[in-house]
């Protein structure tokens, strides 16, 4: 059974086997969590992302998929990059958001990761409503068939922590 832990803080400061990056499809860094992971993790992460773009993901990583790289200077073994969907009030993209969590856990299992830190995927610049994003994240992780022992949701602020706490109950 996977233990869910909620932490308010900086995901780049977590000591875990794998840190999940809310990446953009280019895999070449960006703002928010993505930028913070690339800055603190250093150039090795970007170098591996560039290799992925030059080989398997020439058009970028598709939304809802996940791929791993080194964690560089982070206190983790791997970074699992996943591309969350942009919120839409005209199209239900919930399955794509759930896929981010499922696919990240699948990659974690392939790597042998036992502890994984997740951000609140898509709830920042991608505009996903925080309460709904928390609901999808918690429900998807709880339903996942995974060998990961601890999923740590690392929430940037009190508002996000409270939304996840309501769902984790």
Total strand segments: 6
Beta-strand share of residues: 15-25%
Q: Report the average pLDDT across residues.
A: 97
Span between termini: 17 Å
* Portion of residues within helices: 25-40%
Number of helices: 5
> Order of helices and strands, N to C?
EEHHEEHEHEH
- Give the quaternary arrangement of the chains: single chain
- Assign the structural class, choosing from mainly alpha, mainly beta, alpha/beta, alpha+beta, or little secondary structure: alpha/beta
Most strands sheet = 6 strands, mixed
Protein name: RNase III inhibitor
InterPro entries: Macro_dom (IPR002589), Macro_dom-like (IPR043472)
Pfam family, one: Macro
Domain Macro: 1-169
Question: How would you describe this protein?
Answer:
This protein is an alpha/beta fold and 169 residues long. The protein has a single domain (3-168), classed as Leucine Aminopeptidase, subunit E, domain 1, CATH 3.40.220. Helix content is 38%, strand content 20%. It is built from five helices and six strands. It has a six-stranded mixed sheet, with helices on both faces. A hairpin with a 7-residue loop joins strand 3 and strand 4. It starts with a strand and ends with a helix. The mean pLDDT is 97.
